[in-house]
Amino acid sequence: xxxxxxxxxxxxxxxxxxxxxxxxxxxxxxxxxxxxxxxxxxxxxxxxxxxxxxxxxxxxxxxxxxxxxxxxxxxxxxxxxxxxxxxxxxxxxxxxxxxxxxxxxxxxxxxxxxxxxxxxxxxxxxxxxxxxxxxxxxxxxxxxxxxxxxxxxxxxxxxxxxxxxxxxxxxxxxxxxxxxxxxxxxxxxxxxxxxxxxxxxxxxxxxxxxxxxxxxxxxxxxxxxxxxxxxxxxxxxxxxxxxxxxxxxxxxxxxxxxxxxxxxxxxxxxxxxxxxxxxxxxxxxxxxxxxxxxxxxxxxxxxxxxxxxxxx
Amino acid sequence: xxxxxxxxxxxxxxxxxxxxxxxxxxxxxxxxxxxxxxxxxxxxxxxxxxxxxxxxxxxxxxxxxxxxxxxxxxxxxxxxxxxxxxxxxxxxxxxxxxxxxxxxxxxxxxxxxxxxxxxxxxxxxxxxxxxxxxxxxxxxxxxxxxxxxxxxxxxxxxxxxxxxxxxxxxxxxxxxxxxxxxxxx
Lengths: 312, 185
Description:
Order of helices and strands of chain A: HEHEHEHEHEHEEHEHHEHH
Helix content of chain A: 25-40%
Number of domains of chain A: 2
Shape of chain A: globular
Low-confidence stretches of chain B: none
CATH class of the largest domain in chain A: Alpha Beta
Number of strands of chain A: 9
Mean pLDDT of chain A: 93
Radius of gyration of chain A: 19 Å
Number of domains of chain B: 1
CATH topology of chain B: Rossmann fold
CATH architecture of the largest domain in chain A: 3-Layer(aba) Sandwich
Strand order of the largest sheet of chain A: 7-6-5-8-9
Structural class of chain A: alpha/beta
CATH topology of the largest domain in chain A: Rossmann fold
CATH architecture of chain B: 3-Layer(aba) Sandwich
Oligomer: heterodimer
CATH superfamily of the largest domain in chain A: Aspartate/ornithine carbamoyltransferase
Number of helices of chain A: 11
């Protein structure tokens, strides 16, 4: 059960047993958030920087609450209110923040690989909170936690991920994680947003959503990322909706006890109908709740032990 | 691999049973209102000790005492000395501790640091009327001003030895052992 990592850069570098250690630890953490005093002292005196170069509601406040519930000190930093607008480079920014004796840096950045780059010179633990179109490991972990809560297992489940796979770091991290834990992953979306190369990463690729949904245990809808569409990937929102939106009629093809997930923020009535998003089948808000427990587990496992020299 | 060996077997099943019975009676004597009593066992072996005490009180007085489980990993003060992290397990206390007489239970009392952590943790959960401490073995070497209200056995030991309460529930037998640690090899 040993968890020997200094950084959390992606799901790729975690073993199946690492992932299970995080999920089990998160289960114990969940109880703390139900107490009247939602705080334990384990990370007292640790300093964490929440460095967000991209907009975020859930991930950022979730990391912040997770750190606070473990008694760490956390400082928020966003691109618009920092010296980044004066032209400071990423490396300079990190080195300056580190000069204030930080223990961990949580980073979200539009460039894929930036957490890896930082970890090459940084002595703090680096946690990837989403890098470009690459990975978003804590999202995949909280998704797995939520699936396990409902299905009691992950192995052997059919998980269908629908939407803008090309731009989605959530899809990549989920694909890696679900493969490591033995689920069957089906990706669906319009061809320009779903390159067939994903087959080489252990997924089935389907362009017909109705077929993809047959017998699904979990349906994970992704947001259409309009901010990343520098080219035109589909003719119109209306066409997208008619082919790839999750509505009650389509959802009937999934198993009767299937659950609906979405990493948020949702575009109501684009990728998912409002009726389903707010239905009993939807676990979207549970995902958010579980995010805090999973991030508490990650912070504890990375920071709550002895200083170790691990080239991670 | 290091090899450790059992230096002595101090108590057998019969002696352990008698110590449990004596402690259960002491608790009953001291707590006139057993309906206000709750028991909290510290993971891992404290939980089994707690359950046995609750069972003995039930047999003698017919009162069901609620038993909760406390995991103190997140309250430890020595986590930065550990080679790797302790696994965090669930705290499972389904009752409110406010205004209750809480009987805190552990298997072995040594430095007192575990009990310090458990007290902090309990107080974060509410404001008990009183907290009493029961340990099966008190082996001395306290580093903090902590003393148990109920003790199964006082067992003077050397600091480098380990004391183990083996319990039928997990170890398939009841026995108290003193363990001699392995030399450096």
